[in-house]
Amino acid sequence: MRRGCSYYDMVRKTWRHTNLCEHICNIEGNVPRVRCKSCGKVFRVSAPWAFDSISRYTHRFEMQLIRLAKEMPISAVSREMRVDDSTVWTILDRYVQRRMESHNLEHVHTYYVDEKAMRKGHDYLSTFLDQDHRVIFVGEGNSSDVIHDFMRYLETHGGSVDNIRHVSMDMSGGFKKGNAECFPDAKVTFDRFHVVRHMTDAVNEVRRREYSNLLRAQEEERKALKGQRFLLLRNHKDLGDSERDSIKSLMSMFPDLGRTYIQKESLRATWGMEHKYDARDFLTRWIKESIDTGIKELIRVANTIERHMDGILNWYESRISNGVMEGFNNVLQAIKGRARGYHSFERYRTMIYLRSSGIC
User: What is the CATH number of the domain that holds 165?
Assistant: First the structure.
């Protein structure tokens, strides 16, 4: 009973319980209500077998539903528990909200952030992982505002801006702007996989340009270039002998493509140096060589890398990479695919917290 409250009356209430021998089981009982002496409001006392006073389900029923939701699609949970989808979501939303309210982030000193498209178009969510690769925050959108939202969440859950020492992200403008405003003392490491992806995109753009220039050229050359996209984008060390022979042939036939491909492969050496200053010298030479080629696609990437060089080379201190986020995005896709997509950000966020936060 609440302190400073007096007995008011008794009300009859029914709670749905776990099935008994495949039959729906309900619990009925009288629950007291009390009146607060200070404000005069009347409150219902929580039953010991329910999470709170407004719940229409027993603790055991809700926990069974939650365990199933971690492993099964929502539609299957609904059929198994004999409730409609809206009831399942109500129970999950309230449970996740209760758990996340007690989320303690005082240990967080590093965070990873990446965006994920919720559906076709420009609807995104951003997920934040801590140094132990657990989800600590899910925000709507991919602008600088989502970093501000994360900062507020961090500080209201025991964390501190001053504790954040390292950040791993891609080179998107929104993330950079938000991090500079919210975590100015944290060292940003720009993800090596996104850096290399800029180069693979450049290789593909050059391939397309070369192919379009061959529309009136010899049919043999067109056939040699057609369908080679994924071969050109793969890591050279992972290719077989026949595939490497194909690459050599393409490089001799198409000089711009060959030069761009060489620069793509040599860029990987940036993260293989013994010291950071060696990597800086190498990357400086790489940028100059790329610009000197006169290939516009390569020049664009070289300029991008030059602007972000400090963040790229911070890897030598942090040793962190958004490869963690790339793997987690596969988890997000599996969560989304299991439900054949979520129609709202709130429901998608609920499932991410439920299955990947480690506290739900």
Answer: 3.30.420.10
Dig out the tokens for 192 from the structure.
């090596």
Structure token digits, residue 258: 């060959």
* Percent of the chain predicted with pLDDT > 70: 87
Higher pLDDT, 160 or 221: 160
187 and 325 belong to one structural domain: yes
| Tokens read off for 219 | 């049919």
Query: What is the three-state SS of 9-35?
Result: EEEEEEEEEEEECCEEEEEEEEEEEEE
Same-domain check for residues 63 and 88: yes
Residues 115 and 97 in one domain: no
Q: Please indicate, yes or no, whether residues 122 and 175 belong to a single structural domain of this protein.
A: yes
What pLDDT, on a 0 to 100 scale, did the predictor assign at position 1? 46
Distances (CA, A) of 150 to 132, 157, 356: 17, 11, 17
Q: Which domain holds residue 211?
A: 194-316
Q: How many C-beta atoms surround the C-beta of residue 41 within 10 A? A: 9
Rounded to the nearest 10 degrees, the angle between the axes of helix 345-356 and helix 59-69 is 90
The pLDDT tens digits for 7-40 are: 778 888 898 999 888 889 999 988 888 888 778 7
The C-alpha atoms of residue 250 and residue 207 are separated, in whole angstroms, by: 10
Q: How many CA atoms lie within 13 A of 180 on its CB side?
A: 9
